Amino acid sequence: MSLVFKTIQTEGIAELSYLVGDDDEGVAAVFDPRADCDVYIEASREAGVAITHIFETHIHADLVSGSRELCARLESAKIYASGEGGAEYGFSPEKLKDGDRFTFGEVLVTARHTPGHTPEHMSYLLAEADHPDEPWAVLTGDSLFVSSAGRPDLLGEKHTTKLAEQQFHTLRDFYLNLPDHVMIYPNHGAGSPCGADIGARLSSTIGYERKFNKFLQFTDAKSFTDYAIKTAPPVPHYYPIMKKVNAEGPKVLGNLPRVPGLPPKVFKDAIEKNAGVLVDVRNMLAFGGGHIAGALNIGGTPILSIWAGWMLDPEKPILLVLEHDDDLERIVRLFVRTGYTKFAGYLIGGMKAWHAAGFPLQRIGQMSVHELNERRSSLQVIDVRSPGEWSRGHVPGAHHVYVPELRNRIKELNRNKPIAVYCGSGYRASIATSILKQQGFNELWNVPGSWEAWKKAKLPVEGADNE
User: Fold this and answer.
1) DSSP β-ladder status, 380-383 and 419-422
2) Rounded to an integer, what distance in angstroms lies between the CA atom of residue 66 and that of residue 276?
3) Spatial distance between the Cα atoms of 101 and 96, rounded to a whole number of angstroms
4) Could you give the CA distance from residue 66 to residue 72 in angstroms, rounded to a whole number?
5) pLDDT tens digit sequence for 369-422
6) What is the average per-residue pLDDT within 353-357?
7) Cα separation of 226 and 26, whole Å?
8) Are 451 and 389 in contact (CB under 8 A)?
9) Residues 120/87, Cβ–Cβ less than 8 Å
């Protein structure tokens, strides 16, 4: 017998899912699959196992669950989801109770109710079948992370106190009662808004977390609750939407959505007829150098999944401008992960074809951090990072507007004064300047490298916590 244990990392949304099984018996389970689920089928084939069970830890808020999609592509698999905590679904998974056990050859999986992040949350203990009460690992879902823990505030203010108390007891009464050697495998890594400052490592041990995880140091529920709420990052706008989608049961697509290719004239006509929201996924320098009027720039890196969720309405079709036509499938996968399945088309040949057709362009300037420092007294310097990032230091004299709030706070800006926008690296600054360009601001600059470059250049800092 050889244990099958594979971590599938989904960058951008920083999601971790798992294939667990036994290649002697030829069976395996998948835990918390993402929507573009081919990766699990390919992994199971490579391992020589059949996926028979698909487990969910909880009703996700940060991504579209791939359980129904994966189940539809397999002949004999079933979906298992928590029946605890009053969980209700618009589809028919097999409902789990605390203590339910499943055997995959020599691997024993035990479901444990671990409420706090959500009322229904389940974690899964892994043990050898011959030693059922001696787990060697636990799949923690969004309950316990490396250096952090799942936030308790995603169901709204009226539920937060109760969930925080449940989370406190889950951490102390369940996790801290496990032996130090037990490995923890969470549902998210660094960068996910599902927890505060999640650590960079993808796994840890109970013993290590017992010693160093700040969320495990509290001895009373109130101080834990205060800390959990204070440290939680801003809640992305799409989280409540994802909750509803996943509770109801995401639509089974059968494949990636079709995106028709449109030549420049047809693409231009589609824009003029408001056939979709114009999204340019090229990098900030390419976008700044020349783009179609009205385009929103959300760069085509893995983090697109999160920022599409923040900035776009999933009910409105998308008109895509790509760096290269060959990027289409990769970009569509990033959109699908947070629920974007409606596309009005993409520009065949990209901006090169648009140029060749003689159609007009708009531009956004780029300003180095050194030039920003020299000119900042004559500029509106806008910092579009999160509140937590802002509090750790910012450019002197900058005005803080978190990028998802920008459209609603446009009136705070002076249209008659030039604007330079920065963020952590430049990615969000380009989203922000594309919004400002849509709103009729013309004297605009992005700051490539942004705060990272500012600090490396050892330029002056204002407002750092330690000052």
Assistant:
1) parallel
2) 26
3) 9
4) 10
5) 999 999 999 999 999 999 999 999 999 999 999 999 999 999 999 999 999 999
6) 97
7) 47
8) yes
9) yes
Give, in order, the Cα–Cα distances in Å from 402 to each of 69, 150, 409. 35, 23, 10
CA atoms within 13 A on the CB side of 209: 32
Bridge-partner residues for 205, per DSSP? 183
Q: Residue 100 is encoded by which pair of tokens?
A: 């339910």
CA-to-CA distance for 174 and 113, rounded, in angstroms? 9
- Residue 147 φ then ψ, to 5°: 65, 10
State the Cα torsion 422-383-428-412 to the nearest 10°.
-120
**pLDDT in the model for residue 75:** 83
Kindly state the DSSP code that residue 257 receives in the 8-state scheme. Answer: P
Strand blocks (E) in 170-258:
183-186, 204-205
The DSSP H or E segment spanning 70 is: helix 67-72
Q: Does residue 466 register a pLDDT over 70? A: no
Question: How far, in Å, CA of 464 to CA of 467, rounded?
Answer: 5
For the chain, list the domains and their CATH numbers: 3-248 (3.60.15.10), 261-356 (3.40.250.10), 365-456 (3.40.250.10)
* Contact between residue 121 and residue 169 where contact means Cβ atoms under 8 Å apart: no
Q: CA-to-CA distance for 186 and 142, rounded, in angstroms?
A: 7
- Judge contact between 164 and 225, C-beta under 8 A: yes
Cα(306)–Cα(288) distance, integer angstroms: 22
Integer angstrom CA distances of residue 154 from 80, 356, 377: 23, 48, 40
Please, what's the b/e burial string for 133-159 (b: 16 or more CB within 10 A of its CB; e: otherwise)?
eebebbbbbbbbbbbbbbbbbbbeeee
Dihedrals φ, ψ of 173, to 5°?
A: -90, -25
At 163 the three-state DSSP class reads helix
Distance between CA 298 and CA 388 in Å, rounded? 22
- Beta partners for residue 123, in sequence order: 112
Using the CB atoms, write b or e for 160-181: b if 16+ within 10 Å: beebbbbbbebbeebbeebeee
Q: Which of 355, 392, 395 is nearest to 375 (CA)?
A: 395
- CB 99 within 8 Å of CB 86: no
The full length of the chain comes to: 467
**Is 0.90 topped by the overall pTM?**
yes
What is d(CA 22, CA 163) in angstroms, rounded to the nearest whole number? 36
- Provide the 8-state DSSP code for 232: P
How confident is residue 245, by pLDDT bands cut at 50, 70 and 90? very high
